[in-house]
Amino acid sequence: MSTERLTIRSEELSLPALDGYPLAATLYHAPQPQAHLLIAGATAVPQGFYRRFAEYAAQQGFTTLTLDYRGIGKSKPETLRGFDMRYLDWANLDLAAAVNLHSHAQLPLYMVGHSFGGHAFGLLPNHQQVNGFYTFGTGAGWHGWMPKSEQIRVLTLWHVIAPVLTRMKGYMAWSKLGMGEDLPMGVYTDWKKWCRHPRYFFEDPDMPELAERFACVTTPIVAINATDDLWAPPASRDAFMAGYRNAPYEARTIDGARGLGNIGHMGYFRSSSQTLWDEALEWFAGLNKPAQS
Fold first, then answer.
1. What is the pLDDT of residue 1?
2. From CA 27, how far away is CA 89, in angstroms rounded?
3. Burial tier of 18 (Cβ tally within 10 Å: 0-12, 13-18, 19+)
4. pTM of the full predicted structure?
């Protein structure tokens, strides 16, 4: 990718979700746009975390949109106590609106996911508008895919710490644990329920339609996970991404041999991981090349 550092103009937007809920979004303008890119962030992670990646993508010709889901970052109400929403609203209503806004008649639209972002893509009612999807750190959430020490920590969180916090606050005070933004109660209860299953919400008997929604996706997909990602190691990725059974799909794994240092669950979007950014953007650029005759 180009090493030239261009000044990127960013613009804060108010984005109405499909049900009208006002969302905070930021548009990073590429000086010479070749494509549009939408970032679907992780649970409890505000859009500012992706700023460096968004600026870098814009420098490479991708006009990039980030957003805060409802209840998170600049899209949260004055209090989360009593805030009524469900986890999948972030995909069905929030990201879907971002796809509509960021689609362009002459330029392809691509999407980068992080963790939950990889779940969200298969839930979108308008995923057909996206020409390629590349996701980092997406997994099934089940503790059994994690290393033993992390299993103990996660089970303690779900069954000891989180119930106490939610009873006290009326929402999941995630920030008290140093793990990101606080979560609305609906997000917490759905997330906890689905993390009981090895294949996440695909095994929820109350939501049998999800498997068919994912089966409708035919967009090319790459899913990349680090071996030191305790929350979404490669086995967890494979369990979840199998849901995209009709999409052209490639799994990529990062191990210590890459020389990138510790990645974990959040390191994909640190500046030290620029080689991973280059690989994603180059893959998108390859999708946009005309076929050789």
1. 59
2. 22
3. middle
4. 0.94
